[in-house]
Task: inverse folding
């Protein structure tokens, strides 16, 4: 990827460029679009050059996807989506972009909509999950620098053959970040239905606190591990292009919004927490293969097979079997369990395992924090706290800045609350 | 306009190109789209190269227009529509085109959607009522000649500046005819919710008969005079480019459709009727200006004023006033009455009329037939038949192939039935 060349021109501009992204619940109806316009007005009146990226009105994408599912042939699960699916579904953002432009015009602002093919947001041709290749600085950059507000349809782009592409669910975040990178924006504000990123999901623990700042890497782990506030790809992109991201609520009063959470470089965070957040991922399932012959290449065979079937594997544990050979267990998204079981059943003789067990009643609880790099004892705190509550750890996986454990579903929320307290994240103990 | 150059290439092709257009009720849901696909299958299996032009799903355009009206600034009534309106509303046909393509794919056909900007359907920039300037033969022509079915989003195009344009209500008919002209199609079949063009509206007279053939000129008069089966502009275009049009029902069984009505050149109709059809237009209103000074230039002043206000005037009658000067009365669409009254009230002193009367309770009844050119007595038959029923004629206007009279609304349906019988159009007396 060699995109976003436009960013080099930043130096010659006088006014800051700001990208503002509004999700589906923020543009659910025309009344809510008027609230969106009030947020845009704040930035426009401050003299900034504004790009607004919008999602489809809440519920619209689901409605369009259902129509496609009814009309069309089954989607090849592992292949790219049908290009007609993209054509149909992208209409949702097209409608929002036009309506938000109209709303801004009614308030007296110059505004126009830009579809993916007009900006253009150039993507590869992996329809349904396309990646943005390039957004040229022109004509969008010149347009906003004249004071015209650009309302860009999120989630969509145009492939090299001129067909409409979509970026996959949550793709409007990615559109916003890519626009910010391409246009050298001062910041990219993601307006959503929550007022920032929390130490954990407030529905799991009333002690959850909003974080003022969180690093790209932490956010990336959080997005991958169940926090739904930002799409993983958009955080990756922000990290790669150093786009200053902010998550804030469109449900606050537009004239006195809360500051939200800034997602930035680790170096820009002065007071680093050892652990910043606890996440719970419910979309997990486990397979255990018992008594796999303990020969070189068996693990490669198993995971090669699953990779060929397009299944993402996580949390692999291998241990000696009491009978013979080794037991190998691993996790995947719950939706991929059935396919994984099918693939492994077919290959039973080839792999040579004695028995297969699968389990949907598992969840993954993770503690995340850049401070782990320089502090020891994070893991032992975790295991001790969970142990004291009698919570059995089935699998463990770690990275430089997170530790994840797989536990029985029933204990998920208890584990989150326990760890939230154990790492000093509870409201009473921290700021905000 | 110097478009449709592609038509010249017809000679080198082997298979006939056919354009099939399906309106909103024919694509109202995915089930109905499957019926549409069955009609397309018939033509595709016959080895033709197929273009399908589609409208938005029934109700969708109204929904989108309402959203625009809610969000946007008031539309400047006399100017072009807001380009964002076009962006929003055109999404309706985009969705249908993708879904119909998916439906055809599910049946095993190669099919793809084409949006206005992809074909491209190049239009002028009169947004909301754009006129098609050109549809190049390529890439659409090559695509269909490989056997791929092209599903074109009707009603929309792209202006020179790359913005989405729409052709105005009913514009999908125009898209279909323009495609047929551009691609040198053998015929353009307009599938709709009626099985053809009738001697009069079957809801007005049970004696109405379907016409096998009707000339472009008759159809043009019928479309302008209240028959809603085809949009006027599409008939004009068909006449200009000699596109063989057919109106037929998508509600018949796809494997044995009724023949519908062919709209063709007058010379291709062997048995010409003196009168082919009777129409009733309810969207009429009348203004009478009493005692206008009888001086040269007063009529020019009145109608110049109304033209400047964008009001289309019809059926002008001037007669001497019993008091002084002349009485001038004229008709217009009912929706334009209020504006016309406003304009004339403002200009009362300038024009110098004594009194203005307006009347919404009027309808226009017309008899249409190319046979009028060579037969006399058509008008006297009309006046005699209406007179015998005690129906008073307020205004009269004529063209070479039609006579229209303005009468009180209450008598509209009686007048239609009376004339339908008087000209021998009743079912018992004719064929079909």
Result:
């Amino acid at each position: 990827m060699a995109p976003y060349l436009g960013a080099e021109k930043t130096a010659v501009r006088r006014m800051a460029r700001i990208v503002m992204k509004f999700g589906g619940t923020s543009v659910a109806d025309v009344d809510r679009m008027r609230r969106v316009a009030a947020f845009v007005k704040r930035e426009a009146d401050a003299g900034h050059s504004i790009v607004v990226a919008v999602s489809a009105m809440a519920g619209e994408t689901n409605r369009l996807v259902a129509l496609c599912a009814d009309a069309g042939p089954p989607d090849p699960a592992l292949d790219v989506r049908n290009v007609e699916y993209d054509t149909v579904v992208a209409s949702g953002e097209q409608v929002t972009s036009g309506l938000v432009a109209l709303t801004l015009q009614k308030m007296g602002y110059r505004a126009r909509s830009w579809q993916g093919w007009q900006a253009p947001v150039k993507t590869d041709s992996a329809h349904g999950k396309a990646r943005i290749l390039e957004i040229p600085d022109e004509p969008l950059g010149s347009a906003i620098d004249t004071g015209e507000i650009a309302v860009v349809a999120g989630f969509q782009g145009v492939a090299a053959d001129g067909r409409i592409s979509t970026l996959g669910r949550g793709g409007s975040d990615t559109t916003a970040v890519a626009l910010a990178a391409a246009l050298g924006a001062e910041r990219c504000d993601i307006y959503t239905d929550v007022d920032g990123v929390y130490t954990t999901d407030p529905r799991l623990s009333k002690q959850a606190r909003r974080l003022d700042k969180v690093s790209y890497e932490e956010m990336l782990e959080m997005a991958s591990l169940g926090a739904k506030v930002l799409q993983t790809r958009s955080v990756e992109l922000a990290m790669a292009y150093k786009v200053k991201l902010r998550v804030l609520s469109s449900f606050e009063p537009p004239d006195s919004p809360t500051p939200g959470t800034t997602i930035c470089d680790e170096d820009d965070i002065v007071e680093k927490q050892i652990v910043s957040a606890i996440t719970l991922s419910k979309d997990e399932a486990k397979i255990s293969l018992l008594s796999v012959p303990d020969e070189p290449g068996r693990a490669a065979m198993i995971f090669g097979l699953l990779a060929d079937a397009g299944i993402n594997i996580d949390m692999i544990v291998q241990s000696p079997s009491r009978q013979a050979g080794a037991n190998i267990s691993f996790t995947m998204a719950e939706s991929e369990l059935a396919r994984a079981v099918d693939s492994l059943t077919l290959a039973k003789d080839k792999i040579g395992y004695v028995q297969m067990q699968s389990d949907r009643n598992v969840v993954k609880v993770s503690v995340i924090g850049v401070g782990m790099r320089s502090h020891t004892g994070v893991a032992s705190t975790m295991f001790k706290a969970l142990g004291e509550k009698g919570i059995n750890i089935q699998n463990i996986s770690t990275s430089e800045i997170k530790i994840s454990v797989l536990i029985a579903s029933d204990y998920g929320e208890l584990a989150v609350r326990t760890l939230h307290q154990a790492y000093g994240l509870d409201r009473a103990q921290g700021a905000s």
